[in-house]
């Protein structure tokens, strides 16, 4: 009996590892900060004819709007509510895009920011993408609504209220990531709001989620949330299809939290992949391409069926997040094409290509002063 339950649970988890790409397509592309209207056209004009399986979109929900720096790309990682108007467009434009992409067989995966709301220093007012009023200081977000009762502050034991030590799993989960107000996902009420938000998107036709900042959420809380998600919309997907889940956990080793803790819940981003592939293509440490004969698990990466892989992502392309100097990006365009081609040809993990925008790099003492720059659109 115990064995049977284990198999049943495992099977349920595995369902969320399937990207449900159609027509034998395998890869997805991150259209970072693209507008919904542009993505719809891109699906019809380029992605479907060229065999792309799906698109990871930027967070579609209401976010803070910042002036200093001016409209940074990262304002989209500071939610104000789950209303669906963002820098990429309105709810109607989002719905139209999801429909048109699905109609040409290209799936949509939503970047879901559910660990936190905006930064503690985010101020008070209506500087938000749908114009909803909020107060970061009072932890009041009436258009969800969330109040001060819905945040983790009592659980966090650090002096600053922020994560101070990644060696302590409790603070990584219960304290604030760079001052972002940390949601109490153990509360039934908070889970319900997050589940409603995700289910609304599933019903609109999305095929799954890139879940942001999973290292900062307890696997048990995520399991409770994922378990209440609807099956995919049968207008485009076969009955009983579970949403595809891929979780952002940066695990390069050396921390108490490992990606393994999240394997049963969905796929996990394999950050070792881009870091290692970069050293190989740059020929650092005497790496040679023929050493990659055993590429994949043989290089200490996670099991094939758990991995979501990429050469670079929106963070490490601009010096945020992890991976370090070896990461190959569009700034090294020849190497980048070679590395992406290698990844797409190699049968390991679900592969994701990066497509964003260029900005004016201005490096002072090794740090790009312009790493905040937003997209070249008018909002
Ligand atoms: C700053 C200080 C804080 C201070 C605070 C005071 O750093 O110490 O307490 O001011 O107000 C922005 C700023 C950051 C600022 C913060 C809050 O860059 O300096 O804090 O806002 O105001 C993106 C960006 C972050 C950005 C964040 C929110 O990368 O720079 O922070 O959006 O706008 C870890 C995590 C991993 C994470 C990675 C970047 O384990 O989960 O760091 N990756 C994901 C996303 C990433 C996003 C977030 C998580 C947060 O891929 O794009 O961060 O949603 O490795
Ligand atoms: Ca948290």
From TrEMBL:
CDD domains in the record: AmyAc_bac_euk_AmyA (cd11317)
User: Which Gene3D superfamilies does the annotation name?
Assistant: Glycosidases
Cofactor(s) named in the record: chloride; Ca(2+)
Lineage, highest ranks first: Eukaryota, Metazoa, Chordata, Craniata, Vertebrata
What is this protein's name? Alpha-amylase
List keywords of the entry alphabetically: Carbohydrate metabolism, Chloride, Glycosidase, Hydrolase, Signal
**InterPro entries (UniProt xref):** Alpha_amylase (IPR006046), GH (IPR017853), GH13_cat_dom (IPR006047)
Among the GO molecular function terms of this UniProt record, one is:
cation binding
- Family that this chain belongs to: Belongs to the glycosyl hydrolase 13 family.
- Limits of the Glycosyl hydrolase family 13 catalytic domain: 26-379
Give yes or no: UniProt keyword Hydrolase.
yes
Biological process according to GO: carbohydrate metabolic process
User: Could you say which residues form the signal peptide?
Assistant: 1-15
Stated EC number for the protein is 3.2.1.1
């Amino acid at each position: 009996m115990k064995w049977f339950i284990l198999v049943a649970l495992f099977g349920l988890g595995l369902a969320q590892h399937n990207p449900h790409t159609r027509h034998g397509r395998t890869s997805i592309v991150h259209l970072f900060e693209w507008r919904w209207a542009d993505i719809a056209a891109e699906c019809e004009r380029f992605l479907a004819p060229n065999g792309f399986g799906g698109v990871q979109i930027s967070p579609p929900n209401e976010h803070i709007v910042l002036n200093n720096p001016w409209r940074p790309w990262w304002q989209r990682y500071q939610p104000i509510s789950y209303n669906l108007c963002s820098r990429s467009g309105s709810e109607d434009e989002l719905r139209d895009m999801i429909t048109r992409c699905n109609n040409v067989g290209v799936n949509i995966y939503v970047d879901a920011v559910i660990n936190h709301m905006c930064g503690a220093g985010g101020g008070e007012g209506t500087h938000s993408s749908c114009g909803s009023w909020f107060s970061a200081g009072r932890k009041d977000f009436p258009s969800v609504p969330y109040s001060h009762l819905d945040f983790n502050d009592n659980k966090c034991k650090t002096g600053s209220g922020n994560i101070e030590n990644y060696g302590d799993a409790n603070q990584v989960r219960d304290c604030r990531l760079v001052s972002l107000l940390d949601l109490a996902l153990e509360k039934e009420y908070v889970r319900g709001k997050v589940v409603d938000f995700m289910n609304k998107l599933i019903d609109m036709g999305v095929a799954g989620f890139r879940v942001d900042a999973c290292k900062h959420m307890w696997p048990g809380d995520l399991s409770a949330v994922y378990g209440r998600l609807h099956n995919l919309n049968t207008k485009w997907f076969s009955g009983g299809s579970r949403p595809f889940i891929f979780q952002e956990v940066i695990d390069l080793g050396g921390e108490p939290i490992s990606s393994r803790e999240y394997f049963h819940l969905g796929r996990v981003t394999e950050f070792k992949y881009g870091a290692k592939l970069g050293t190989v293509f740059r020929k650092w440490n005497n790496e040679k391409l023929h050493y990659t004969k055993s590429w994949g698990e043989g290089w200490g990466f996670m099991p094939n069926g758990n991995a979501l892989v990429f050469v670079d992502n929106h963070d490490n392309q601009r010096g945020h997040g992890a991976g370090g100097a070896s990461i190959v990006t569009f700034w090294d365009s020849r190497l980048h094409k070679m590395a992406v081609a290698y990844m797409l040809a190699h049968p390991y993990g679900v592969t994701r290509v990066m497509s964003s925008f260029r900005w004016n790099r201005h490096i002072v003492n090794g740090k790009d002063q312009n790493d905040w720059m937003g997209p070249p659109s008018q909002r």
